[in-house]
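User: I'll paste a sequence; please echo it back and then give the predicted structure.

Assistant: Echoing your sequence first, then the prediction.
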Amino acid sequence: MLISNTREWASLNKHYNEMQHVQMKEMFVQEEGRFERFSIHFKGLLFDYSKNIITKETIDRLLKLAEAADLKSKINAMFRGQKINTTEKRAVLHTALRYPVKASYSQIFVNGEDIYPDIKRVLDKMEDFVEQVHTKKFRGVTGKKFTDIVNIGIGGSDLGPAMVTEALSYYKVKGIRSHFVSNVDGTDIINTCLHLNPETTLFIIASKTFTTQETMANANAAKNWLLSKLCVNDSKNKGGTTPIIDENLPVKKHFIALSTNIPAVTEFGIDPNNAFEFWDWVGGRYSLWSAIGLSIALSIGMSNFRDLLLGAYTMDEHFRNEDFDKNIPVLMGLLGIWYRNFFNAASQGVIPYDQYLRRFPAFLQQLDMESNGKHTTKDGYDVDFQTGPIVWGEPGTNAQHSFFQLIHQGTQMIPVDFIAFKENVNDDGTQHNILLSNFLAQTEALMKGKTAKEVAAELKAAKEKDAAGILPHKVFAGNKPTNSILIDKLTPHSLGMLIAMYEHKVFVQGALWNLNSFDQWGVELGKQLAKKILPELQSNDKISTHDSSTNGLINYIKNL
């Protein structure tokens, strides 16, 4: 049965009719303890959801909806390694990658085999490799230490590592610069390599199958660049240079692979000992916790990488064990459903008030929209309600000078998550206080708005001559819902908690909608057609096998 056909859904729909015109600012006046009632402190993280169009009754009804969807059993099924990715018949166990050695349930089985020894083995291999690079034991073909790491991947093999590496760049290891290439547009790899020294550059090719078209195109471009540029000293030529004759050696010394396809890795020229595996129970958008995170570990050190894992594990434990009425990811997910399905909010804003989290909204776009952008349930039935929202955002305060106009005075309801840190890792407090004052003011402004009466009083005080003409343009409806996520300090541990919190929020929504949040068939159709079109672009024939628009575009590109 669709969740929309339950009594609990009908009850929420009735409640929505009672709540849709309720004003938050009035509830704050009437409820002295509203902040305390609707906020949760957990391990240096404060989740304030009091600025939402909710009452205790709203939360109670949402929690009953979670019960109707059997959310607790679905959470347990994921953590136990049941094959909840039903279309691909796979377990979903990115959480197992984060278990500390002493976790009481670090022993977990997939297809009858305990997977934890393999997880530990790969982590230990990563640690050994990171140490060799940082201590300069692993060097390039000319004997020089590595100074630049280039991660080549796409989707989860790029977005997660790139976001985390930038977010934690305050903790980066001295002497290591990180770069990320994902776009098959040649400009990406060309511009990245433009100022690199081939003798000191290490390439990471991140592709589970080692067949991903975009990734392998960029990998081959990087290989060609390396072989064309890399030289060794030629003593016979008075210190001049001559190209390396053996082309296999530079690739073995300057390329590593994150893949399970060892034959393809070997054929490319990479030493199979420098291939790091991960498993089919690790989805792409959850893969930063696996060997895909090697670029993170090389950037910030293995100790910090393990702390990132531990932070995520801390949130896993909260999500797995806490009662739903005090469970941050559960409440985030339920609030999202409240606005998506009852208020018809089509999008969700995420505004981090920290420049280090510049790419966090982009990371969440894949996490949320690729997971829950689905129109059928696990059972194959079309839904009769809206699913995944459009996720978007930019860092504050930049965002305040661009799309905040739409959020404040536009015609759409756009719930927004505001994220900030009490302490700035770089700032003595002067600029950080300005930043935090904006973080606090925006949520208050979105909640309160400004009435016509208040605007009229301001215009009168300012002796505005055209008060009547200007007044309607300065009215703010207010009543715009926000969550405030305030964290003590940006560290690997706190970032791990934050990422896992959003992972589980997305899981909650998919579980209630009864979606398979762990496949991504929607990305496949375009790729299939692209494989058909590529040889047509390379041929000299006029194309007529598609619709007239596609035929016309192909032939126009070919000047036919």
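The radius of gyration is 26 Å. The CA atoms of residues 351 and 394 lie 6 Å apart.
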